[in-house]
């Protein structure tokens, strides 16, 4: 029997919330957010309905890539606090029923990491083989650099030993040689360490790069190893170390089409990543938003592989901490989204994405923003929020690069949006200005306004959590005549819901026929008052306002649930 046969697969209907500590809440007035600051806001997060916190890297780091360049995987950057503060955060979160996952960077370290310092010191160093070196001049790899403009290739020449080392990201982020068993062991040791401190899983960074065998075999000293074995090792380790009743999860960043993602779940065996972000659905959602046409999204959802192993799950998101990448769309589709939502060059990133947050892309239209979050929570899978989304924060384009969306959390109208008492010039990042600034958008004000996005997201999160068919169920796209509308049904056992979203500003009437439903069945509106009878023969007509949305539970006669 597999361990997970008896495990609580809690992540299958969790509400995940991603926090950048740096910009969340500064408890000691130094301008930098910290662990005690976040701990003070756990009750706020519990109120929003969050059930799992994802902490972006908080490890010691020279911060050339927002902490994704780690110099000590076991440490806590003293700017954020110490291990005591970390354990206290985990304790308080667990007390409120919130699990905690942390970023695990398996593809690279900082060039300041002791492994790399030793590796570059000499060709005979025992750490030489922790990284990927080549002695011959590399070909032009400018197309492969993840940060074009900052790097012109993926190999950098190192004077000391006169060889080149591999880095898919910045040259200050050398790629680990993940084919090396010692590296694998060092990574599992890191997982063991944080699990012991109480974490419930990991968000694994840049997974396809970490098992990129082409580059590994390109460096002649490496023998071929089955790349996916590495992920199996991580998963096995995780299962051995997390208790049988509440299994820890690994949520991988695999920005690939659905069919290619399958191998990262471990196909039918499901023995690799437990979760993956669905980048296809994300990008097609934005194409659908741009066109006000639900068909691209409906197609992406329909072609998403179903019948995966029960332990696996997709994570849905609208925005994350990076650029909103559109690299899985065709060039023409990408241009459509960019032209619609990022008309100015300054709003774009590396020709492939946007450095904006969603409310600004929608010109602050509250109906459209609320519809988008309703859609997010209604999709099959687990929703992931990026901090500040729940109150409708915008970006600050004056902040360079991807950091434009990583500005201080807006708690109140006070100085620095209530994020910090430091002088504004000391802040980790500049606060948003203009219509999305803290005078207009902040958590304190949103709490007092029953119509706020914050209350809407809270309602959606609670509804999502008590509708297991959304996280666990099977999807059917329902036929109806409007291309502006996505109507889908989620079913798990005898529980079923119908979810309808109007992506356009036009008001529409959606006829729905639910075949095979017995007499007396009703559709109960879960977000507002109302119900309508279902007739197996005749279509039920549901009216949607512009950007309207409905969550309708199929209630059969005798259904005992509290609705
Ligand atoms: C992932 C992270 C991103 C980071 C990169 C390199 O894509 O999400 O922020 O820059 O990996 O670590």
TrEMBL record:
Q: Where in the sequence is the signal peptide annotated? A: none
Pinpoint the Glycosyl hydrolase family 13 catalytic domain residues.
Answer: 22-423
GO terms under biological process: carbohydrate metabolic process
Under the heading InterPro entries, the entry gives:
GH, GH13_cat_dom, Glyco_hydro_b, O16G_dom_2, SupH-like_C
- Known Pfam families for this protein? Alpha-amylase, SupH-like_C
- Coiled-coil spans are none
Q: What is this protein called?
A: Trehalose synthase
- What is the species of this protein? Nesterenkonia sandarakina
